[in-house]
Design goal:
Strand order of the largest sheet: 2-10-9-8-7-3-4
Number of strands: 15
Structural class: alpha/beta
Radius of gyration: 21 Å
Helix content: 40-55%
Largest sheet: 7 strands, mixed
Order of helices and strands: HEHHEHEHEEEHEHEEHEHHHEEHEEHEH
Length: 403
């Protein structure tokens, strides 16, 4: 019959069949349809520094980046990334051989995993994890092995069980996929925890991919420790960074990889067949952004800390159990204290679908970030990277639940 396909095989690659449409698309559409405040997807509702935006305009007008930029990224940005890593952490990278610019951290993750993994490899990742991790591991034909971060009894944080991490490593393990500060739990792995991760990687000769896009958002005395600074890790670690979260220009999609020459070369081999290049004029602007004085980064963190405390207090008053994040701009909550009816018997997905009608607010169910869905079922994530007035209105709406 005209217009009909002759094959019975599904169109979608079987490795991706389990993923479907992302929960972010579903919940953002729900926010739009109901007129709710969207505290689900993690993007700011205001632009970043005016001088950085003007740097992009200047690059456009000067004709810098309007055509294909160099494959590894424009030299100015690669130099700025290397200088940032040295200034903040004492890490020295060669801009020409150890830095690669990507289309956001999401492409950096994809290119890295596609480059370094082969079918049959295992990847140990901290669960819950950003949804692209699972999809990229699947596209590479590898298997994900989750190690679950669990609430620490008596403390408002999630904790990594180092014994469970060690037990998860087998002869098939190719790499560890680490995210700190951690989305969605807000956990910042301590120096002691990361030292144990590093020792395991050296002992078992593992590669480590570390997603550090929230490196500038740590609170309450927490310390961001890049894994590459620890003994034995400089040559086996791929560090992923991004401008979107730090400078509030998420739509520019400028990320990067820093690693030893051999690892960067491998990642670049995969990246060149994804976007090839991207974000030309914005690369010049991000180079200027990375050179901003420490006062910018301090003010950014202070602003987000105030917003965290505002939303955390409102969620607590509304009846949620709140895990106060030490990093990122997300708060994970437990919905069970709201009661069986309001919490949909601890079903975070059902709760998030009902929340817009109940309170005019949208959140994300953490269960979508888990392989062990039951472990994440009662947890729900809220983003606080919004204007203070928006958060105040969201808090006022959420108080309807307590009533």
């Amino acid at each position: 019959m005209t217009g009909m396909t002759s094959t019975a095989r599904p169109f979608l690659n079987r490795r991706l069949a389990e993923f479907g449409t992302t929960v972010f698309a579903e919940m953002s559409a729900l926010a739009l349809r109901t007129g709710s405040i969207n505290l689900g997807q993690g993007f700011p509702d205001t632009d970043g520094p005016e001088e950085v935006r003007e740097a992009a305009v200047r690059a456009l007008r000067d004709g810098r980046g309007n055509q294909y930029p160099p494959g590894p990224g424009v030299p100015e940005l690669r130099t700025a990334i290397a200088e940032h890593q040295h200034r903040r952490y004492g890490l020295t990278f060669d801009p020409d051989t150890e830095v690669l610019v990507t289309a956001g951290a999401t492409e950096a993750i994809a290119a890295t995993l596609l480059a370094l993994l082969e079918p049959g490899d295992e990847v140990v990742a901290l669960e819950p994890y950003y949804d692209s991790y699972a999809a990229c591991i699947a596209m590479a034909g590898a298997a994900r092995v989750p190690v679950t971060l669990r609430p620490d009894p008596g403390q408002a944080r999630f904790r990594l069980d180092l014994d469970e991490l060690r037990d998860a490593v087998t002869d098939r393990t190719r790499l560890l996929l680490i995210n700190t500060p951690h989305n969605p739990t807000g956990t910042v792995l301590t120096r002691e925890e990361l030292t144990a991760v590093a020792e395991l990687a050296v002992e078992r000769d593992l590669l480590v991919v570390t997603d550090e896009v929230y490196e500038h958002l740590v609170f309450d005395g927490a310390e961001h420790v890049p894994l590459a600074t620890l003994p034995g890790m400089r040559e086996r670690t791929v560090t992923i960074g991004s401008a979107g979260k730090t400078f509030s220009f998420t739509g520019w999609k400028v990320g990067w990889v820093t690693a030893s020459p051999g690892l960067v070369s491998a990642v670049r081999s995969a990246k060149q067949f994804l976007t090839y290049v991207s974000s030309g004029p914005f690369q010049y602007a991000v180079a200027e952004a990375l050179a901003l004085p420490d006062t910018y980064f301090d003010a950014f963190r202070t602003d987000m800390l105030a917003k965290r405390d505002l939303l955390a207090a409102g969620l607590t008053e509304a009846g949620f159990a709140v895990y106060r994040p030490a990093g990122t701009y997300f708060i994970t909550t437990d919905i069970r204290p709201l009661g069986a009816a309001l919490s949909e018997k601890g079903d975070g997905y059902a709760f998030c679908r009902a929340l817009p009608e109940r309170a005019g607010v949208v959140a994300i169910p953490n269960a979508v970030f888990y392989d062990h869905r039951e472990a994440g079922a009662p947890f729900v994530r809220f983003a606080f990277c919004k204007q203070t007035s928006v958060l105040e209105e969201a808090v006022a709406r959420l108080k309807r639940l307590a009533a």
